[in-house]
Amino acid sequence: MTFLKKYGFHFMAIAVISEWVLPLVLAAFIPGYLQFTNLISDFGEVGTPTHMAFKVWEVANGLFFLLSAPAFYAYFKNTSKKLSSWFTTMLVIFSLTDCIFTGLFDRAATSNTQNITGMIHNYSSGIGDTALLISMFILLKLYRMQGKKTVATLLMGAFIISLGIQFLFVYPRIMPDSQFKIPYRGLWQRLNLWLLYMPFLLISVKEMFKKQHS
Question: Global pTM?
């Protein structure tokens, strides 16, 4: 556990950067893949050249996120043990569902070929996104308790913007027959992930440099 508390922020930095790099690298192996239109999970569809690479990559990222949890708990526990526990719980849920489970369980190519593994993939992704969003809300509460009002305000703004982006992303799924069409689901997915991951990366980089100079 001491090892994870010491290097957990390194694991988080690796996981976030790896998540950002994943679609840029794998897109080169799928002709016609469009970053603003296609989803990241498209890389994991059965039959695509990136199928196995996506599965391994996501499981690895999930493990990195999971290994970072003890460091974040230790970082915030003096502020509030309860909120710190909830924060790390959301991080663990995200690691398991949106990364490890979506890597282990294949996404169905179409709704007509939906099966139990495809359902697990889709529901896990939704649960993971929700857990990550909740973790940001808890994070702003922790910073507010620390008296860092500017940081808390910035996180509140990011949280609200993320809610709006999340709506743009999920609307085509929850209202498939609506005449009001919202394109570029891939763009909204990527913007949301960048926004939600950024606080984790900034905290990790700050603590990594802090420990190097202490």
Answer: 0.89
